[in-house]
Write a structure and sequence with these properties.
With 815 residues, the protein is α+β, with helices and mostly antiparallel strands. The protein has two domains: 227 residues, Vanadium-containing Chloroperoxidase, domain 1 (Up-down Bundle), CATH 1.20.144; 428 residues, Porin (Beta Barrel), CATH 2.40.160.130. The chain is built from 16 helices and 22 strands. The strands form three sheets. It has an 18-stranded antiparallel barrel. A two-stranded antiparallel ribbon has the order 2-3.
């Protein structure tokens, strides 16, 4: 652990030093010409204006970034400016920022006690150590920057250390004042409910405030991707581990993080010398209106994976109206979707009236993203919006399949929501806000599922033998009544096209509706730190691969009984060498956890590059890789699309062992003669690995991680399972751009080499979605499942009927 944090601290210092030396040793005249031709390049020779005492110096005034008396004057001015800032709330633009944040914080405070009780207790001490090391790394980087800048006469490094120290000290003073005023108990004090005015020191988090104040200074002084990622990554680590270390409630760290970021922003804007380099940092209220942000620098939340938007955009892409969408790598931000809609609109105009129903589809998408399209035209991005509220009922009559890891699933790709025979229910809502480079999205719901009887002796014996684990206990399943955060995250745009997000997030890393082998929405969103970039051009000769989109994350899995709470990280890149072809390659690795492969710096890098460890005699962790494709067949008038993915367990690439590796080919027919509103998908998936000895241990299972490739018992990838086959059809009739009627059929089998005597069942379903102009919507599904044979589970053929009805409301998105 010490080696890891030493490496991070060294990297942060070296990154700053290298960039600082580059900036100070260059041609001075070239540096002067590279500065933005605005008022900040003018040096004032007169005395500071009257309002300088508030901490906002006019451009060109000497910031006096020196120790002793100037430093003490800075602290005094910073404190005066902060405690006088509430008067700004009289401005409507300030309220647009403050009110959503206050509402979000209030919601967190209301749920703090419940959330804190969900945090496992077996990693508390480690989390506390990590949070301390992360803060020490940032503070050490600040002190080291100042010292190194003094020794090398590097004014930029010296300013970085000076301003970081100023921000950290201000954060300490202000958080201490709030702690004394609120006196909130910590999660491990009292009854764990976080009562205020009881003599505690929990609210807000001083660690988080210090970390984010220093990180924001460093990231703006040296805005390169490496320095920015390391600075904000360490700050995010502090925010997370203060909660998992039972030192703070979620609202404590959120307020502390925002407070630190705000203080760093104010100090940087007031004291930074623009002639030294660094990034600009505008005024939240005024500068965004005076100097519009580019689309890639605006904070924007992701569109939920179950939105009607994705099928609509994929349809326009299949018809050639969109050329830059990456179908195999989702989710997409609202700004990215708006750019695709704008591209489709230009194509519709060029079609000169031949687009037909597709023009209506583009028009409805244009309504959905009207606000974001306005941002593309230069409007100010400051918004807070209620995304949706909904209630959902799921009724299952008859025996249902609920264990996709071993047997199969009656309902799949539903964000890991629990369901059992009887009446299941969910109700919840979602909210998003964005301002400048930052965005917040929260989707929470209450989930209910009835109780279920214990597993039979035969089933429990099979699970023990197939997973190489002790026989599970013969206990009935209790009813589920819980509140869950689905997608809930904070996202920050670091640089043009780069977005860093932290929180519960969903991924879909493959084309088609049938579920990617590598990562799908069959699981509950996991907590992760995620970095994405869209529209990147690869360097050197790789430029011939065309535009690319990359997605990387580091997160943690839940519900693992045998290696508790392992970490997981993943990377995926999709690129388009031709307009008609999209290719993607992705990997994920499960590592760490108590009793698992230790997460050390060496093991991490060996697993990342697929190299064997001499100590373990294997590649560290449990690796998974995939390759996917989407091919729009040319010269057939946009009728055909071929897509699919290959998967490999424990192979670096899925081409190494073709007889072993699962496959999922698919075909998409965009329309039929005389039925232009009807389209068709067909997919086949297999994990049987013909010709190889397979007992359900080649895919989605690992000799170290016996819980396999799961999160809370649900398969992370395709629900075809560890050793099975599936073929599925989707007929979708587009009644209107947002109203669809869909018929599906799926035939599933599980090999008898895995489950004794195998299993087979068929699903027949009809789905309907209807959105009204008022914002109300109805989603319904009726499914009949015939289990023709499953001797281990049932004595004979069985059947069940599932009805799903969701009623919701989506407010109009004016802001």
């Amino acid at each position: 652990m010490r080696a890891l944090w030493t490496l991070l601290l060294t990297g942060l210092l070296l990154g700053s030093a290298v960039e600082g030396c580059t900036q100070t040793r260059g041609d001075p005249e070239k540096q002067r010409l590279n500065q933005q031709p605005d008022s900040k390049s003018v040096r004032w020779t007169e005395s500071p204006p009257a309002d300088a005492s508030l901490g906002f110096l006019e451009p060109g005034v000497d910031p006096e970034n020196r120790l002793f008396l100037p430093f003490l004057k800075h602290i005094t001015d910073d404190q005066r400016q902060f405690w006088a800032s509430p008067k700004e709330l009289r401005q409507p633009t300030a309220l647009k920022t403050f009110l959503p944040f206050a509402g979000f914080t209030g919601g967190l405070i209301a749920g703090d006690s419940w959330i804190a009780k969900q945090v496992p207790t077996n990693q508390v001490q480690r989390s506390r150590i990590i949070s301390n090391y992360a803060v020490f790394s940032l503070v050490g980087a600040a002190a080291g920057s100042y010292t190194f800048g003094q020794l090398t006469r590097n004014d930029h490094l010296r300013e970085t250390g000076f301003l970081s120290s100023e921000a950290a000290l201000n954060s300490t003073l202000i958080t201490y004042a709030f702690k004394e005023a609120t006196m909130r108990l910590r999660p491990d004090q009292g009854d764990g409910n976080g009562a205020f005015f009881q003599g505690g020191t929990s609210f807000p988090s001083e660690h988080a405030a210090i970390a984010w104040s220093v990180a924001s200074i460093v990231a703006h002084e040296y805005p390169g991707p490496v320095t920015t990622l390391m600075a904000y990554g360490l700050a995010s680590t502090v925010t997370l581990t203060r909660v998992t270390g039972k030192q703070h409630f979620p609202s404590d760290v959120v307020v502390g993080s925002v407070l630190g970021w705000y203080l760093g922003r104010q100090i940087y804007r007031a004291r930074h010398d623009p002639e030294l380099g660094g990034a600009s940092w505008g005024n939240l209220r005024d500068d965004t209106e005076k100097t519009p942000r580019t689309a890639g620098s605006m904070g924007s939340p992701y569109v939920p994976l179950d939105s009607w938007v994705y099928p609509a955009l994929e349809k326009l892409t299949a018809f050639g109206y969109i050329e830059t969408a990456f179908i195999g790598l989702k989710p997409w931000t609202r700004m990215e979707c708006a750019q695709l809609v704008e591209q489709a609109g230009e194509a519709v105009q060029r079609s000169e009236g031949s687009a037909g129903d597709l023009a209506d589809l583009q028009s409805r998408l244009q309504e959905e993203f009207a606000y974001e399209l306005g941002l593309l035209d230069g409007q100010n991005n400051a918004t807070a919006h209620l995304e949706s509220v909904y209630i959902r009922g799921v009724s299952v009559s008859g025996p249902a399949l609920t264990d996709g890891y071993h047997f199969g699933q009656t309902l799949a790709y539903d964000f890991g929501r629990p369901f059992r025979t009887g009446t299941n229910a969910q109700f919840g809502g979602s909210f998003h806000a964005a301002i400048g480079p930052a965005a917040i999205f929260v989707r929470a719901e209450f989930q209910h599922a009835p109780s279920a009887p214990a597993l039979s002796d035969a089933v429990r014996s099979f699970i023990a033998s197939s997973d190489l684990v002790p026989v599970p206990a013969a206990t009935p399943f209790r009813p589920v009544n819980r509140v869950r955060l689905l997608d809930a995250y904070l996202a920050i745009n670091l640089k043009e096209g780069w977005q860093l997000s932290f929180g519960q997030q969903s991924l879909s890393w493959g084309p088609g509706p049938g579920g990617s082998f590598l990562w799908s929405d069959n699981i509950e969103p996991i907590p992760m730190l995620r970095l994405t970039q869209s529209g990147v051009r690869l360097p050197g000769f790789l430029r011939m691969l065309g535009p690319a989109r990359v997605d990387s994350f580091f997160g943690r899995l839940e519900g693992h009984s045998y290696i508790p709470r392992p970490y997981i990280y993943g990377n995926k890149i999709n690129f388009k060498p031709f307009r008609s072809l999209e290719l993607g390659f992705g990997r994920s690795v499960t590592i760490g956890g108590k009793g698992g492969t230790p997460l050390t710096t060496k093991n991490f890098f060996l697993s990342y590059f697929g190299q064997r460890s001499s100590q373990l005699n294997s590649v560290p962790g449990d690796s998974h890789s995939s390759f996917d494709w989407t091919f729009y067949v040319p010269k057939v008038r946009n009728y055909l699309v071929f897509y699919g993915d290959l998967y490999a367990d424990d192979d670096f690439v899925p081409f190494q062992n073709p007889p072993k590796n699962p496959f999922r080919p698919g075909i998409y027919i965009t329309r039929f003669p005389r039925l232009p509103k009807l389209d068709f998908h067909m997919e086949a998936a297999s994990t049987e690995s013909p010709g190889l000895p397979n007992r359900g241990d080649l895919n989605y299972w690992n000799y170290t991680y016996h819980d396999g490739y799961t999160n809370n018992g649900n398969l992370i990838g395709n629900t075809v399972g560890r050793m099975g086959r599936a073929i599925q059809f989707w007929f979708t009739y587009w009644i209107s751009p947002k109203n669809t009627l869909q018929f599906t059929y799926k035939h599933n089998t599980v090999s008898q080499d895995f489950v004794p005597k195998g299993g087979a069942w068929q699903d027949y379903a009809v789905r309907h979605e209807m959105y009204l102009r008022s914002g109300l919507y109805v989603k319904s599904q009726l499914q009949y499942e015939h289990i023709s044979s499953y001797p281990l589970l049932f004595s004979g053929p069985q059947s069940n009927t599932t009805a799903v009805v969701e009623l919701g409301f989506v407010p109009h998105k004016s802001r």
